[in-house]
Structure formats: C-alpha cells, structure tokens
C-alpha cells in the first residue's frame, strides 16, 4: 500500500479515536468524510462499510479505557444496545439501497439538527447514581428500548456508530451525567458498528487494509480523548458544547460536499 494512503489513514484513525474517547461519538461522522476526502476512497458505500469496521474496533478499545475509568453504566448501556442492534440491522439494509449522494446529504442534515439541539442541553444529567434494576425497569426500560431501536436504525441507515445520537439518547432516557453517557454510549457504538460492518461486508463493501490502519490510529487518539473528556467534564457545559460544535461543523461540511457533488 502506498505511503500516500497509509499516513492519511493512520492520522484519520487517530482523529476518530480521539473523538470517540472525548465525546463517545463522532467516529463515523468523521470517518466517512475522512475516508472519502482525505484517504481517497471513491465509493461511498465502500467508505461506509470500511468506517463501520474501523469505528466498531476503535469504540471497543475506547470502551475498555472508559471502563477502567469507571464511567460506564453497564446495564443501561447494554439494554439500549440490544434494542439498537435490531434497528441497526434493518437500517443498514435500507441504507445499502439508497443513492450514495442522497445518503451523504441526509447524513449531514441529521448531524446539524442533533448538534444544534445539543447546544440547548444541560452539561449533564442530574442523577449520577442512576442504574437499571427491577425497581427502575418499568421507568427506564421503555425509554431505553425505544431510544435504542430508533438510534440503531438511524446508525445502520447512515452507516455510523451512532454515538452522537446515543449520548443524548442515554441522557434523555436516564438523566445520567454526560461523562457517563459518553462512556456508556461506546457499548452501543461498538454493537451498532459491528452489525453494520457485517451487513456491508457480506456485499464486499469493506477495505480491510484501510480499516486496520484506522484502528492503529484509533489506539493513538483514544487515550488522549478520554483525558480531555475528564478535564472538560468538570468545567460546566464545556464537554456538551464541544460535542455540539464538532457535530454541527462536520454536518455542514458533509452537506456542502453532497450539494456540490450533485450540482
């Protein structure tokens, strides 16, 4: 493989890993345009499938790092992810049948809407002790099940890990602090990404060599992202604002590229 591909792929993977460690999402939001516009993958569906493999692996690595830091609410995260996998399987099947340029345009639009909504959110939830149990199942179960299915469907359709939707979804359903939502979201990001990756791989839409380089870069960026997240979590709305700015900025960029390509 040429050096002109290896270095951009590793550096792009580091950016993705940093984003996953920092905000628990943004992996595929960044990975898809990085693969298309920086690494040079010309087929949008191939970029989506490759990003799903890379993001799932990077998310798993970052999940282990967050778990060691004690930021993961395992039962809430697992319940959300189980329903999300069902949605991701259905969404990714529909996504493969959708026009690539339309897919990128819709992708950017959703990112802008969610990012703008995050500007209005509080820095975190009000219940750091929230957990799934027999006592809380009736209250938390339906919210997590609905949110997981919806977010999983969107994640599969757009070929993304879904963290930028999982984080606000977990905060909204459980009122957990944002830092816990970031760590817990990585359970779903890993599961959604793996489901989407498997679906795309069945049709040959994965470049395994580039995916491997992304994972190497993700190892380098993930630890830095977690360090930054823990620093920002203690500074009011800083982490929430960073989350929103990243999502909105990339959303406008992807939408602009889609409009330009269609013109």
Which features does this protein show?
263 residues; mainly alpha; 0% strand
Secondary-structure blueprint:
Blueprint: H1 3-23, H2 27-39, H3 44-69, H4 74-95, H5 100-119, H6 137-158, H7 163-174, H8 178-201, H9 208-233, H10 238-262
Verbal overview:
The chain has one domain (3-262). It contains ten helices and no strands. The protein has helices at residues 3-23, 27-39, 44-69, 74-95, 100-119, 137-158, 163-174, 178-201, 208-233, 238-262. The longest helix has 26 residues, at 44-69.
Main beta sheet strand tally, sense and closure:
none
Specify the helix fraction band. over 70%
Mean pLDDT: 82
- Radius of gyration from CA coordinates: 17 Å
Low-confidence stretches: none
How would you concisely characterize the structure shown here?
With 263 residues, the chain is an all-alpha fold. It contains ten helices and no strands.
């Amino acid at each position: 493989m040429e050096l002109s591909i290896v270095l951009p792929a590793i550096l792009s993977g580091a950016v993705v890993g940093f984003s996953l460690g920092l905000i628990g999402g943004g992996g595929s939001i960044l990975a898809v345009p990085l693969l298309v516009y920086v690494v040079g993958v010309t087929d949008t569906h191939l970029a989506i499938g490759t990003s799903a493999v890379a993001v799932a692996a990077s998310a798993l690595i970052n999940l282990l790092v967050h778990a060691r830091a004690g930021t993961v609410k395992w039962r809430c995260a697992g319940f959300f992810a189980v329903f999300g996998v069902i949605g991701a399987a259905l969404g990714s099947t529909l996504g493969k049948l959708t026009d690539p340029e339309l897919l990128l345009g819709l992708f950017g639009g959703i990112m802008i809407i969610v990012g703008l909504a995050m500007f209005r959110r509080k820095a975190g939830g009000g219940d750091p002790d929230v957990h799934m149990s027999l006592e809380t199942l009736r209250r938390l179960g339906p919210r997590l099940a609905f949110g997981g299915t919806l977010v999983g469907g969107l994640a599969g359709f757009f070929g993304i890990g879904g963290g930028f939707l999982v984080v606000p979804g977990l905060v909204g359903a459980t009122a957990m602090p944002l830092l816990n939502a970031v760590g817990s979201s990585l359970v779903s990001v890993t599961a959604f990404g793996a489901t989407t990756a498997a679906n795309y791989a069945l049709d040959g839409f994965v470049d395994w060599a580039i995916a491997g380089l992304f994972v190497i870069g993700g190892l380098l960026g993930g630890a830095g992202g977690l360090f930054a997240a823990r620093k920002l979590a203690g500074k009011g709305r800083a982490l929430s604002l960073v989350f929103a700015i990243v999502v909105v900025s990339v959303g406008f960029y992807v939408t602009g590229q889609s409009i330009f390509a269609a013109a």
